[in-house]
Amino acid sequence: MSDLEDNTVSEKGPTPPTARRIRAHFNASITTNHADILMLSCCFISGLVDSTIYNAYGTFVSMQTGNTIFVGLGGSQNRTTKPYGWAKSLTSIFCFFLGCLFWSRFSRFMGPLQRRTLVLSYFLQSLMMILVAALAQAGVVNGQLDPGVPSDIEWLQEVPVALLSFQAAGQLAGSRALNLNEIPTVVVTSLIYDFGSDPALLQSWGRNIKRNRRGLAFLGILAGAIVGGWIDRGTGRMESALWLACGMKLLVTISLVLWPKGASESG
Q1: Phi first, then psi: what are they for 30, rounded to 5°?
Q2: Smallest Cα–Cα separation from 50: which of 161, 180, 154?
Q3: d(Cα 141, Cα 125) in Å, to the nearest integer?
Q4: d(Cα 57, Cα 141) in Å, to the nearest integer?
Q5: pLDDT of residue 231
Q6: What is residue 181's predicted lDDT score, i.e. its pLDDT?
């Protein structure tokens, strides 16, 4: 009789110890050891997405310095090949700011280094990117690159810009949560300054980890932009590069699921 009861319990679902282990796994804080690999991957993603969106819509979704200049040029009614590009740049700045408000508070509320926080954050970012790629693939939004000088703005283009800008702020929140301020993943200007002003700039490779990370972050963004440019040139549309970025962001999410616990949580 007891054997029958045990079988019945096991068929109904996971045993309580299994559920507790899963819950404990996601509630645990992760180690920051080698987490720079994840953030450097996000640098590549930023370069890939920004180069693609710029080719398609004439704006950025991560590099808000460039967008600020575009808004200023629009306000001065300067001649440009994308006369309504300033509106998309303004959307990007505003949605990136909203993303900063949301992701920073989400991280503090859930616990910055807890696995559940980072996994959920990067999963939601991935979903936003997947939605944009799917909209372009289905033709709901214009995914054509360099369609010529528009006579009027296509307001549906605001949707991809808004979603991608909002999720980009989540990458920055992730780097802060992992205490990797030297890899902001979405900005280059301060990165170059910090690299050049480092008093230990000329130390050997193994003695200045932060300098190494800054240099690799710059190269990651640059490499992503180059790859995005080649993909865009070969396909003439933006969804191919976006699908690659989606896949990479999902790999980061899966890596966070499997990432080791922090030292205080182990054992």
Answers
A1: -95, 160
A2: 161
A3: 19
A4: 11
A5: 94
A6: 92
| Residues contacting 73, CB < 8 A, separation 6+ | 80, 86
Mean pLDDT per 10-residue segment, the chain (267 residues): 47 70 92 95 96 92 92 73 79 96 95 95 97 94 71 79 96 94 91 91 90 95 96 92 97 96 66
| Rounded (5°) CA angle 105-44-200 | 85
Cβ density class 169-192: b for 16+ within 10 Å, e for less: bbbbbbbebbebebbbbbbbeebe
CA distance 253 to 128: 13
pLDDT of residue 142: 86
